[in-house]
Design the sequence.
């Protein structure tokens, strides 16, 4: 029977975050959410800001899901290997919503694209952390 998994790697400028087999992945592409499963057609896309979710097989990693907040970078799927090169990849379980909300409030009156990007990342962190808390991820 053919494998129902593919290899997924998440790498940031400072660390290799993970390198494991997954059964599905959902990423925030710059133009909307994009899903990946085994034998997907090759693609290269730019990452947006948002939640990246990985579903693991029952054996090996113990099943279940894991999610990260990513901001900027690229994702490439070729030959059942998904490589995510992200500027940031923050595990949702490490996000303290109250701290991020305070950060967001401090950014409210700051103008410019840099502040816009920081606000988008803060909003994505809050949404992902709340989603994970509600779903038990």
Sequence:
């Amino acid at each position: 029977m053919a494998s129902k998994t593919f290899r997924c790697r998440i790498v940031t400028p400072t660390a290799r975050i993970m390198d494991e087999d997954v059964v599905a992945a959902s990423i925030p592409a710059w133009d909307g959410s994009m899903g990946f499963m085994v034998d997907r057609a090759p693609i290269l896309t730019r990452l947006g800001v948002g939640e990246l979710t990985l579903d693991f097989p029952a054996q090996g990693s113990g099943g279940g899901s894991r999610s990260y907040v990513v901001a900027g970078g690229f994702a490439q799927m070729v030959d059942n290997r998904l490589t995510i090169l992200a500027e940031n990849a923050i595990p949702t379980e490490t996000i303290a919503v109250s701290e991020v909300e305070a950060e967001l409030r401090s950014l409210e009156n700051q103008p410019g694209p840099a502040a816009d990007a920081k606000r988008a990342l803060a909003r994505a962190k809050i949404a992902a952390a709340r989603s994970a808390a509600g779903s038990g991820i």
About this structure: The chain has two domains: 6-92, 95-135.
